[in-house]
């Protein structure tokens, strides 16, 4: 699958549109979801151009993969929703059409700050 450079998260990464930034390092950018579904709703995205999780796992370096997975916990800690520093959260990635993915740049959602409820509705 060819990566679409015009997707909204690519524009955020290039600084062309603003975001409510939570955290940034060499591998990830994290910001609040513009349309929060729970009290806390954050997104964590890799800095590299990967359309979805399968693309990422097939094409990213091990360093990038570790950076993204560790970034999720770093962000959860910052938001006080982690196991160590809060009451837990849910993370999920929608993947392609049947997964309901709308933005074609890999992203993990983090939901927390309250009970998240049913896993799939
Ligand atoms: P998905 O359905 O997994 O692709 O989710 C895309 C998410 O991106 C949705 O929860 C949107 O609310 C969120 N979103 C779309 N545009 C923006 C934006 N400019 N800033 C922050 N979140 C956004």
Number of domains: 1
Largest sheet: 5 strands, antiparallel
At the fourth level of CATH, the homologous superfamily is HIT-like
Radius of gyration, CA atoms, in whole angstroms: 14 Å
Distance between the termini: 28 Å
Given the helix and strand composition, which structural class is it?
A: alpha+beta
Give the amount of beta strand, in percent.
Answer: 15-25%
Number of strands: 5
Strand order of the largest sheet: 1-2-3-5-4
Assembly type: single chain
In CATH, the architecture is: 2-Layer Sandwich
Could you describe the 3D structure shown?
The longest helix is centred in the middle third of the chain and has 17 residues, at 62-78. A 5-stranded antiparallel beta sheet has the order 1-2-3-5-4, covered by helices on one side. Helix content is 28%, strand content 21%. It has one domain (8-112): 2-Layer Sandwich (HIT family, subunit A). It has 4 helices and 5 strands, in the order αβββααβαβ. The protein has helices at 8-13, 53-59, 62-78, 96-99; strands at 21-24, 28-32, 40-46, 89-92, 108-112. The model has no long low-confidence stretch (mean pLDDT 97). It is an alpha+beta fold and 121 residues long. The structure holds adenosine monophosphate (AMP). Adenosine monophosphate binds next to loops.
